[in-house]
Amino acid sequence: MRFHLLPGQRYDTIGVAPLIDGIDFHAILADKAFDANWIIEEMNERGAQIVISQRPQRTHPIKIDKEVYKWRHLIENFFCKLKEFKRIAMRADKTDQSFAAFINLAAAVINSR
Q: 63-108 pLDDT, tens per residue?
């Protein structure tokens, strides 16, 4: 698992570049928040399959694989499991370092179940 903490007042797309840097993958599964032209261009350059639900404003919609898009529920389920840890849901830690450490710990507990 790899994650990147962002300030709460920033768009989610700000965190994409550090997450995908140096990683080889074949597809990106994301929701409408990640429907940005620069992300789609980056995925096309990498040859990765784009499975992002698109905003209605997109003039030329990108065809996505509906069956692969259904796999997104696994990601959503993982976030729901993380939020079962009240300390994560409420962001109770004072520092980013302790918050990140607790996310790693919670992910390890979830994976050990």
A: 888 888 888 888 888 889 998 998 888 888 888 899 889 998 999 9
| pTM metric for this prediction | 0.71
Parent domain of 28: 1-65
Report how far Cα 84 is from the mean position of its chain's Cα atoms: 18
Contact 43, 85 (CB under 8 A): no
User: Using CB atoms within 10 A of its CB, is residue 9 exposed (0-12), middle (13-18) or buried (19+)?
Assistant: exposed
CB 48 within 8 A of CB 25: yes
- For residue 53 the two structure tokens come to 């639900």
Residues 81 and 41 in one domain: no
What is the spatial distance between Cα 38 and Cα 21, in angstroms, rounded to a whole number? Answer: 14
As a whole number of angstroms, the distance between CA 1 and CA 78 comes to: 11
77 and 61 inside one domain: no
